[in-house]
Design brief:
By secondary structure, this protein is an alpha+beta fold. The chain has two helices and six strands. The protein is elongated and about 45 Å long.
């Protein structure tokens, strides 16, 4: 996938965490994160920050797929299942798109396709093209 026109698709922090973009376009995106020991918190489960990073980055990839700079206005996440290993997949989809504000949902699942987290994000379209 060519990421040269969209800086959100080639995010340094996402790379540092180990997140991988599978697909992005038309208001949707899919990201993946293979769990490593450094993703675990003190209780031995995946840290909420790692899950949030995967979700918010996938949201950004979906919101910026049209290459018009969109920044986050609001984000929230509900963690519904603890995981300790495997691969997490985040699927973002656009729920609404206004002239300035767009709404996205990101579902994070484990390898068994069970929901790990549900993320909601509001994007704000800037006038600038990327």
């Amino acid at each position: 996938m060519d990421t040269s026109g969209n800086p959100f698709l080639d995010d340094n922090f996402a790379k540092y965490v180990g997140a991988e973009l599978v697909d992005a376009g038309d208001g949707c995106a899919t990201g993946r994160l293979a769990i490593s020991e450094h993703h675990l918190n003190g209780a031995g489960v995946v840290h909420g920050g790692a899950i949030f990073t995967l979700a918010v980055w996938t949201f950004a990839a979906a919101a910026n797929a049209d290459e018009q700079l969109t920044v986050g206005l609001n984000a929230n996440i509900s963690y519904v299942k603890a995981v300790t290993e495997g691969v997490l997949t985040a699927r973002a989809r656009e729920l609404s798109k206004g002239a300035k504000v767009s709404t996205y949902e990101v579902i994070v699942t484990d390898e068994a396709q069970e929901v790990v987290a549900v993320f909601g994000g509001l994007g704000y379209k800037k006038h600038a093209q990327m």
